[in-house]
Structure formats: C-alpha cells, structure tokens
Amino acid sequence: MDENNKISYFFLGLGLGVAAGLLFAPQSGEETRVMLKNKADEGRDLLKRRSEELRDQAAEAVQRGKETVSRHRENLASAMDAGKQAYRDALNADLAGEGV
After folding, report:
1. Which of 1, 77, 85, 89 holds its CA 20 to 30 A away from the CA of 62?
2. How far apart are CA 83 and CA 75, in angstroms?
3. CB–CB of 22/32 below 8 Å?
C-alpha cells in the first residue's frame, strides 16, 4: 500500500472515531467541545515542544559537524605543512650533498 493511501485511511479512521465519540459521548455538547478544545491545545503544545526539541537537536548536530570539519581541516593543514617541510629538508639535504 502506498504512503498516500495509508495517510488517507488514517484520517478516515480518525474522522470516524471522532464522529462516533461525539455521538456516544456521555457529556453534554458544551462539555464535549471544552474537552476537544483542551485536547487540541494539548496536542498543539506537544507539537510545539517537540519541534523546539528537534530544532535544538538539529542545531547541535550542525555545530558538531562544523567542529568536526574544522578539526579535520586543521589536521589536513598540519599534514600539508609537515609534508612541505619534509620536501624542503630533503631538497636541502640533496643540495648540500651535491656541493661536497
């Protein structure tokens, strides 16, 4: 079953469940509306908290990535400098050996 059908069936089931709940609810219409509003507010607050948590986690992951890239860049620069110095040392040793 593709993803769109799953989502469609989910929302269909959700709608039927809400409709059945409203029809057979032991509370009055006003109490049911207040309860639904409270549940919607709770859901909104949960979604807001989770989105903030995910945003913070993403920011931390980006920061760790930047630090890792910076560390690797420094290591690469050090390796290149060491290679250049070794080349210069070898070149100077060859030139000093030819002059003898």
Report:
1. 77
2. 12
3. yes
CB 5 within 8 A of CB 12: no
Cβ-contact 65, 57 below 8 angstroms: no
Give pTM, 2 decimals. 0.48
End-to-end CA distance of the chain: 83
pLDDT tens-place string over residues 4-59 = 778 788 888 888 888 787 777 776 778 878 888 888 889 889 989 999 999 999 99
Q: Quickly list H helices, the chain.
A: 3-23, 29-98
User: Residue 25: which residues within 8 A CB-CB, separation 6 or more?
Assistant: 32
Structural domain boundaries in the chain: 27-98
Give the pair of three-digit tokens for residue 63. 């920061």
